[in-house]
Design goal:
With 141 residues, the protein is α+β, with helices and mostly antiparallel strands. The protein has helices at residues 4-14, 56-70, 98-112; strands spanning 28-30, 36-40, 45-46, 80-85, 91-97, 132-134, 137-139.
Length: 141
């Protein structure tokens, strides 16, 4: 009986009644909206990217601005740092809590892949002094 099931499986496989399982590589493709898709299906092709709706980049930019404002909190000067996002969203020397900075950079990466007509301004940011904590907010010294 133990030998019966493997023999049946290989017979069905040999005569084309069942398909062998396919293992796709674990790669990801970055889509225009900043999301990622992997390989799927019998041919291991990349899944389709979500459709970028008009205004999606503007919505992501607005979301990023809101997150920057929410991330500006502190209790001491050492809690503060600056974030600089140059292209296509010029935001130089925004002051935020150090613990929030890496998350904001990930959110910015989503935006930097956008191309739905949002204006592209490529300018560098001039580094400023370490921000100070004043009344619970990170500000320019």
């Amino acid at each position: 009986m133990r030998l019966f099931f493997p023999l049946v499986f290989f017979a069905l496989l040999f005569f084309g009644c069942i398909e062998p399982p396919v293992a796709c590589t674990l790669e990801a493709k970055i889509c225009p909206d900043g999301s990622a898709v992997g390989r799927v299906g019998p041919n291991c092709e990349f899944a389709p990217c979500p459709e970028v709706k008009p205004g999606a980049c503007s919505a992501i930019a607005d979301e990023l601005k809101q997150k920057i404002a929410q991330a500006n909190y502190c209790t001491t000067d050492t809690d503060c740092t600056t974030v600089n996002f140059s292209c296509p969203f010029v935001t130089c020397n925004e002051y935020v809590n150090k613990e929030e900075a890496s998350g904001l950079e990930q959110d910015y990466q989503r935006f930097s892949n956008c191309s739905d007509g949002y204006p592209v301004y490529c300018a560098g940011c001039i580094q400023t002094q370490q921000p100070a904590c004043v009344s619970g907010k990170c500000v320019s010294p």
